[in-house]
Amino acid sequence: MNNEIRGNSAIPGTPYSGTSPRLMSVDSLVGNDVYNHQGDNLGGIKDMMLDMHSGHVAYAVLSFGGIFGMGEKLFAVPWNALKLDTEQERFLLDADKERLKNAPGFDKDNWPDMADQSWGQQIHKYYGTRHYSESLRP
């Protein structure tokens, strides 16, 4: 893991020692590894996309494959598709490596328009998640 998962307070660098952090710094999340339930390393969190209107984290951008940043593929994974594993200090994604290889992805020089609703629907459908705004509706 590139960064220690921390988040018990707004104090950067303070390790989290509980089971479910409520607030975490973005710096402590970027660089963390993502595994599946079979124990396969699926890559790392390279970036995070925030919805500036609602304040929600919309997507984690995962980096998968490649060596030293060359040939890596990037994936926007809905934030609610990731689960924090505080014991192993990593994130879990319910997807096998083959599914991730075939997921809609992009390269570092050609990012999709993540604000495009049809693109977002495609991503949520692929990962079997609902857009966070759907869970906010009465």
Biggest sheet layout: 6 strands, mixed
Number of strands: 6
Cα-atom Rg, whole angstroms?
Answer: 15 Å
State the CATH superfamily name.
PRC-barrel domain
Mean pLDDT: 81
- Overall geometry: globular
Flag low-confidence runs.
1-17
Q: What are the secondary-structure elements, in order, as H or E?
A: HEEEEEEHHH
CATH class: Mainly Beta
Beta-strand fraction estimate: 25-35%
Helix share bin: 10-25%
Known CATH architecture: Roll
Q: Count of DSSP helices?
A: 4
For the record, give the distance between the C-alpha atoms at the N and C termini, rounded to a whole number. 39 Å
Structural class determined from secondary elements: alpha+beta
Number of self-contained structural domains: 1
Spatially, the strands of the biggest sheet line up as 4-3-2-1-6-5
The CATH topology: SH3 type barrels
Account of the protein in words:
The chain has 138 residues and is of the alpha+beta class. The protein has one domain (26-136): PRC-barrel domain (SH3 type barrels, Roll). It has helices at residues 26-29, 97-101, 117-127, 132-136, and strands at residues 33-35, 41-50, 57-64, 73-78, 82-85, 90-93. Mean pLDDT is 81; it is low at 1-17. The longest helix is centred in the C-terminal third of the chain and has 11 residues, at 117-127. The chain has a six-stranded mixed sheet with strand order 4-3-2-1-6-5. It contains four helices and six strands.
